Amino acid sequence: MSKHSPHYWGIRMALLEVRQLNYVYAAGTPFEKHALNNVSLSVEKGELIGVIGHTGSGKSTLVQHLNGLLRPTSGTVVLDGKDIWENPKAIRSVRFRVGMVFQYPEHQLFEETVRRDIAFGPRNRGLSEEEIEAAVKKAASFAGLREELLDSSPFDLSGGQKRRAAIAGVMAMEPEILVLDEPTAGLDPRSRERMLSRIERYRRENGTTVMLVSHSMEDVAAIADRVLVMNRGEVAMFDTTEAVFSRAEELEAMGLSVPSVTRIFFELRRRGYDVGGNVYTVEQAVARLLPLLKRGCSS
Amino acid sequence: MMNGITIGQFFPGNSLLHRLDPRVKILLTLCYIVAVFVPSNWYGLGMAVAFLIAAVLLSRLPLKLIFKSLKPILPILIFTALLNMFYVSGGVTLWEWGVLHLTTQGLIAAAFLAIRIIALIAGSSLLTYTTGPTALTDALERLMRPLKVIKVPVHEIAMMMTIALRFIPTLVEETDKIMSAQKARGADMESGGLFKRIKALVPILIPLFVSSFRRAYELAMAMECRCYHGGEGRTRMKQLHMGLRDWLALLTMALLIGGMIVLNVFVTPVL
Known about the structure:
Distance between the termini of chain B: 50 Å
Largest sheet of chain B: 2 strands, antiparallel
Number of strands of chain B: 2
Distance between the termini of chain A: 52 Å
Strand content of chain A: 15-25%
Oligomer: heterodimer
Largest sheet of chain A: 6 strands, mixed
Structural class of chain A: alpha/beta
Order of helices and strands of chain A: EEEHEEHEHHHEHEHEEHHHH
Number of helices of chain A: 11
Helix content of chain B: 55-70%
Number of helices of chain B: 11
Number of domains of chain A: 2
Shape of chain B: flat
Number of domains of chain B: 2
Helix content of chain A: 25-40%
């Protein structure tokens, strides 16, 4: 690590910072709605943040501020030490640095071939043809699209393939931060798991910061470093996965729930079984329960 | 960006006009459109204007709305008034310049026509302000029922209108979403010349078409699943009933037109 790296000195510089963000929909009309209320948070490079919250909690509104699709009513979004709205004309350049995958992204496909659709972002960015080709191939492999699919029409793909093609389209812009809004919505459990491991692998190999918006506690618990909990337009919690899920009662009060395995472990502990600390994934649970079961059998 | 869009111009309320049977309102509007062209003298036109003012007051709509409906026709209004001012001749000549003559008769004709147009537009806008889109299509279906005799698919036309109206907000929302998604991929819709901007719409229009077709198939399937088979033997949840006020409204309109005809006979026309 070089001496110039902030990490060397033990200072972690935030890649993305949101300061005192407020957003009001339809201001001045009877439909006025305060969607975000004094939201502040900071995200470091390479982190994987899970964003959870009830419908209407403001999580989608928040992430749309990160790449300048929405302009804050007040407050700032700071990317790499610079306010993204410093120069409103240059807001497009922010969109390449903060890639955003919307909910049901498969509905945005439009090109004649998958290859050209994935290339839409990089081409808008102004990359050369060779760079575009390389970015498309790389993104397709991260998203789990076989190369022979690249020359077919996106409308001939299966639902899951379409979703992956659309995600590849954002990955191909090689953003520093990748925001995914419900990338596993409507997928079967197996595709879900695969999708999450692809995202995880993408982050690991590129060092990209990832923000994963999700309803599913299971998804978030499995791969996130930290979890941001939104409630009624405010940050309710922003802490490590462990710390957040240990506050199960507060989460339930917000209409959220901890992963089912975690709940089972709570209940086991309540009934007096010594099952140790919190558990968020099935794998963890298996590792914790197997020795207990073996001990139980031998006694 | 497109939040808060209102469909048609329905202004919800509970006034007498809002509660009138939509069929009656359509009929009244049609009659009124004819009625403003009946009078040939100021008294008749005065009756039409009085009727309009009474209707506006009964509707309890903000006056601002009525003026808003007149705004788009302002250019037409000015154009026709000017044309009448200089084409109609007679009476005392007030001003002359080359081929242009401005006469008192011309001024009267222009004013007469302008008032007619204003009454026409304001009167018909009352219909759409006080009647929701569904009630409107419902009423249209009932009124067009006689056309079934000559094999006009009345029910199907009304159903198409209802579905189209129902999906406008959905489509607006969808457009918004796709626009955001393409902007997030760096689509540039705000700069460049005309041709470039048209080209920039392709990534929005294609997904929009695709999803419209998908939605249409899904809707058709859902309707089939609920055994929809057109208007034959179909009953409605909201039955339209003619009440006393509806008959009274029709009677008032009949009196208005009758009165105008009588006045036309006895008063010398202004034109």
